[in-house]
Amino acid sequence: MVVPTVAAITLLGGFLRFYNLGRESLWLDEGTSIWIAHLNWHSLWKLLSTSEANMAPYYLLLHFWILCGDSEAIARSLSALAGTATIAVVFLLGQRMFNARAALIASFLLALNTFHIRYSQEARGYSLAALLTAVSCLFLVRAIQRESRFDWLCYVLVSALSVYAHFFAALVIAAQWISFVALPPRSIRWRQLALCVGAVALLCTPLAVYVLFVDHATHLDWIPRPSLQALYSLFDEFAGPDKRLLIAFYGLTSLAGMIWGLREWRRPKDALGRWHFVLVTSWFFFPILLTFVVSQWSPLFVDRFLLVSLPALALLAAFGLSRVCPGVEAVLLLAIVLLWQCRVLKTYESVQVKEDWRGSSAYILSQETPADALVFYEPGCQREFAYYARREGRTAEIGTILEANFQAPRQDGPLPTDLPRRFPRVWLIQTHLFKQELQDKGAAIRAFLARQYRSATKESFRGVEVYLYSAGPERSVHP
Questions:
Q1: Is 48 exposed, middle or buried (0-12, 13-18, 19+ CB in 10 A)?
Q2: How far apart are CA 284 and CA 386, in angstroms?
Q3: How far, in Å, CA of 242 to CA of 450, rounded?
Q4: CA 76 to CA 103: how far, in whole Å?
Q5: What is the rounded CA–CA span in Å between residue 82 and residue 102?
Q6: Three-class SS state of 295
Q7: Rounded to the nearest 5°, which phi and psi values hold at 232?
Q8: Which of 35, 307, 275 is nearest to 166 (CA)?
Q9: What is the pLDDT of residues 39-67, one digit of tens each?
């Protein structure tokens, strides 16, 4: 009965992750993923070794994945597949650490979790990192339970791979090592354990060197310093949209799991029971709390970066529910959660969350000519526009792309002053103006173009603003 139930839960989770994959446009980061995946091997290796080492395994997989096509749905299906596989891995992990009932509950909760669904439908490496960290925990539990060299080898390789898949996976690996303090001292081969920990650290050394000496994290300067509200908002996101009942459910069941685990701290039924509880608890709390504390000096606290901790929340809540409600009560409570989640999923499905580069690009391509100039204030946005231009077969017809420059010496503005003489029309495409500095520079570009051109129009799309500046025949141009 367990196997068909797990299969049904996994199929349900897979359906929710693959459903309407191409509904939304690519957004800025997804366009970057597809652009990187299209690079040749030399350019790809150079980029991964100099500026994009984070998510390297995902980019390599996507490089081959898009050989089947690079539509929004196909590009995102790699993440959807990883997200679906995580559901089955969470069941296997829960079964080994707790029991089949808790494992089924954990996989069920993860299958319906809208935060996990959201990032399983994005052409980024977050769901792959969550899968690899869950697999790492599974091999660790198996290795300690069975003392198998094969499991230890798999643990070392998967753990190192997970860190390369996303830097924040290193926090999960660190949480695993912290949990070793709860291992029964006489039943573990500590020398073998130490060798495996050292092997993981050694394999991750090139990445540590990259973080310390190559990557200066300038691409993270958009992250604000988090407040306690941000910490609450993270749990809010983990529960899903329209979430008061779900926050209460996860909060109470997780609290029950922690209380139950603490009750059995001194007298676990088996030698490893205490460690399993500590492993799941540290897996969930350590990455979140450490990131929050470090972010008070160097902001890194972003909800999607912490997706690696979400499987632990499902396991912790399932552990608590299976202990507090071991019988029919648990089934009834899960039925209520399912009904509420159906309402939540309906709400989630109706909410558009990504930037509308499909619509904005179609609008520009319908009116743009090769004589025009295009200014992308966020340089990476050229990739999204180029993607949709290529999909429309218009790559050779787009106008000249200019880059605004605020640092050039002896220049009267962010763009050349003879624009109207060279280009009768200029398109300005702006997005991601979430910092005051970016807003000020965007306003400076608009003011500069308004002085140079006779007329301007504006069209707004979700997350994207498109301005068209025209010189007109009556405009006198001064060099």
A1: buried
A2: 40
A3: 43
A4: 27
A5: 22
A6: coil
A7: -65, -40
A8: 307
A9: 999 999 888 888 788 899 999 999 999 99
Contact 90, 127 (CB under 8 A): no
Do 384 and 276 form a contact (C-beta atoms < 8 A)? Answer: no
Q: Which residues contact 413 (CB under 8 A, 6 or more apart)?
A: 444, 448
Element (DSSP H or E) covering residue 228: helix 228-239
Instruction: At 264, give phi and psi (nearest 5°).
Output: -95, 10
Q: Distance of CA 98 to CAs 2, 173, 301, 315, 401, Å?
A: 15, 21, 31, 9, 58
Q: How many residues belong to the chain? A: 479
Six-digit token pair at 402? 């200019």
pLDDT in tens, 196-224: 889 999 999 888 888 776 665 556 677 88
pTM (two decimals)? 0.88
Long-range contact set of residues 292-301: C-beta below 8 Å, sequence gap at least 24: 292/226, 292/230, 292/231, 295/223, 295/225, 295/226, 296/225, 296/226, 298/217, 299/220, 299/223, 299/224, 299/225, 299/226, 300/220, 300/223, 301/223, 301/226, 301/230, 301/234
Tokens 């299209």 locate to: 38
Cα 213 → chain centroid:
24
Instruction: For residue 311, give Cα distances in angstroms to 10, 54, 135, 306, 444.
Output: 14, 21, 11, 11, 45
Question: Which helix (H) or strand (E) segment is 465 a member of?
Answer: strand 464-470
Which residues are CB-neighbours of 211 under 8 A, at least 6 positions away?
A: 167
Listed range (106-110, 144-148, 208-212, 395-399) with the worst mean pLDDT:
395-399
- CB neighbours of 236 closer than 8 A, spacing ≥ 6? 243, 247
How far CA 80 is from CA of 57, 73, 183, 236, 341, in Å, comes to: 16, 10, 35, 22, 19
Unique residue bearing structure tokens 């606290």:
301
Distance CA 253, CA 275 (A): 19
Closest CA to 348 of 241, 190, 276: 241
CA 417, CA 420: separation in Å to the nearest integer? 8
Reported confidence tier of residue 476, pLDDT bands at 50, 70, 90: very low
Could you please report the per-residue DSSP string of 174-226? Answer: HHHHHHGGGS-TTSS-HHHHHHHHHHHHHHTHHHHHIIIII---GGGTTPPPP
Tokens of 465: 């603003």
Q: Which two tokens stand for residue 418?
A: 């003879």
The pLDDT mean for the chain works out to 83
Using CA atoms, how far apart are residues 38 and 149, in angstroms rounded to an integer?
38
**Phi, psi at residue 145, to the nearest 5°?**
-75, -40
